[in-house]
Design a protein that fits this description.
The protein is α/β, with parallel strands linked by helices. It is built from 16 helices and nine strands.
């Protein structure tokens, strides 16, 4: 979903005050969120000087200079529009930070195609899960990998993942706070770096910068894997092999009430109406208007003499 969903209207600009300083540094970086520093300056007009000071400290140098040069004058309408644009750009971090329960409801039925775990070589290897969230890739990967390093920028999601690991008696997961543009790992320290619905091809959502960072932490002849890529052609143009799997075309919500609520909040009124009309909590991704989590892009790092095998045909 490229645009902020209807649920974004429930957040206000002041909700960014809930971010701690590290979160502000991560999420206000224009390369990570696409937020315009001039919009932030307008959005802060009339609000707490303390928040303005925190934002100023959080911005990277180039963005800070642009932020400081933005002095208005701003009309009430332009301020309101700037606040709306900032909230829309920061919607997903705001959701992760403020409503992790709702995020869990959203992703609980988004099952990664089971064959992904056959296509990606995890057995006995050290794996970094970039943007691990609450663990939809981390938990199954841990059953095959020697060790999984779960990296996420949101402590609440890492705590949920740690609780899941504890409940399932999984002891080979490390939990590290960090962003996909600045992974808290040494160069060449893992065999595989995986991003499952984390960064995208958009410059404001990682793109080249995130790929370079993933490649940095992978050992020679290791792999960077992008599960559920937003634009497989973009990744193919950058040396990835695209593997497309058939099936897994339905999002499985736990019950009708959850299905209707999540569809209405995150997808569209039409999707919610489909749930009401059919009485089904199993909603096709086609109805939701998004592709299913069944595509994978894989790139072997640094060794051109050892290319990946030909793509596995779809089934």
């Amino acid at each position: 979903m490229d645009m902020a969903p209807p649920r974004a209207r429930a957040f206000s600009f002041e909700d960014i005050e809930n971010f701690d300083d590290e979160a502000l540094r991560t999420f206000l970086d224009p390369h990570a969120s696409g937020v315009d520093p001039a919009d932030i300056a307008a959005a802060l007009h009339g609000l707490s000087p303390a928040l303005r000071h925190r934002v100023d400290d959080a911005l990277p140098d180039a963005a800070r200079r642009q932020f400081r040069r933005s002095h208005g004058p701003w009309s009430p309408r332009s301020i309101a529009l700037a606040r709306r644009r900032v909230v829309d750009e920061l919607f997903w971090p705001l959701l992760y930070w403020n409503s992790p329960d709702e995020y869990e409801d959203l992703v609980a039925g988004e099952y990664i195609h089971p064959r992904v775990f056959d296509l990606v070589d995890l057995d006995g290897r050290v794996v970094c899960d970039i943007g691990a969230g609450s663990g939809r890739f981390t938990i199954p990967a841990s059953r095959r990998a020697r060790r999984v390093i779960a990296v996420d920028a949101v402590p609440a999601l890492l705590r949920r993942l740690e609780d899941k690991a504890h409940r399932n008696h999984i002891a080979n997961i490390e939990f590290r706070r960090g962003a996909f543009a600045a992974l808290p790992l040494a160069d060449g320290s893992v065999d595989v770096a995986v991003a499952c619905s984390a960064f995208t091809s958009e410059p404001s959502q990682g793109a080249e910068r995130a790929i370079a960072e993933a490649e940095r932490v992978v050992r020679e002849s290791g792999e960077v894997v992008v599960i559920w890529p937003d634009d497989p052609n973009w990744f193919r143009a950058r040396g990835f092999v695209h593997l497309s799997l058939r099936g897994n075309d339905v999002h499985h919500f736990p019950d009708l009430t959850t299905a209707e609520r999540i569809c209405d909040a995150f997808y569209s009124p039409a999707a919610a109406e489909w749930v009401r009309r059919t009485g089904s909590a199993d909603v096709p991704y086609q109805i939701l208007g998004v592709p299913p989590p069944s595509d994978v892009c894989v790139k072997r790092v640094t060794d051109p003499r050892n290319p990946l095998p030909a793509p596995i045909p779809s089934r």
